[in-house]
Design goal:
Number of strands: 0
CATH topology of the largest domain: 434 Repressor (Amino-terminal Domain)
Largest sheet: none
Structural class: mainly alpha
Shape: elongated
Number of helices: 7
Order of helices and strands: HHHHHHH
Strand content: under 5%
CATH superfamily of the largest domain: lambda repressor-like DNA-binding domains
CATH architecture of the largest domain: Orthogonal Bundle
Number of domains: 2
Distance between the termini: 34 Å
Radius of gyration: 17 Å
Helix content: 55-70%
């Protein structure tokens, strides 16, 4: 599941909306919406994100957060380490090889390191 898909599922649960109802209202198939939620489709388009924001009547910070989640929800990414240090290439490859075996705790720990603002 992608971060965007997880948030859509939470919003649907809060509003007591079925996948089929939401899909019909925003103009996609329920199969597509399900695949999007589960990370089996690529990052949602800007247009789909905007329809989702409108559908749930989301405003301000919550709308910005949904846009951010959509941006970071590409399930198949490529990391270009050309021109970077050997350690960067090693890290990218190690993560690709082992990401499926990391626990949620380990993933959270890595995210907290990576998402911390760099020191100036």
């Amino acid at each position: 599941m992608t971060p965007f898909g997880e948030r859509i599922r939470q919003l649907r649960a809060q509003k007591q909306v079925t996948l089929k109802q939401m899909a019909q209202e925003i103009g996609v198939t329920s199969a597509y919406l399900s695949a999007l939620e589960h990370g089996k489709r690529g990052r949602p388009s800007w247009y789909l994100v905007q329809r989702t924001i409108s559908y749930f009547n989301i405003i301000w910070d919550e709308a910005e957060e949904l846009v951010r989640l959509a941006r970071i929800s590409h399930p198949k990414i490529t990391i270009d380490t050309s021109g970077l240090s050997p350690q960067a290439t090693r890290l990218a490859n190690a993560l690709a090889d082992r990401i499926d075996s990391l626990s949620l705790k380990e993933l959270d720990e890595l995210l907290s390191i990576i998402e911390t603002e760099p020191k100036e």
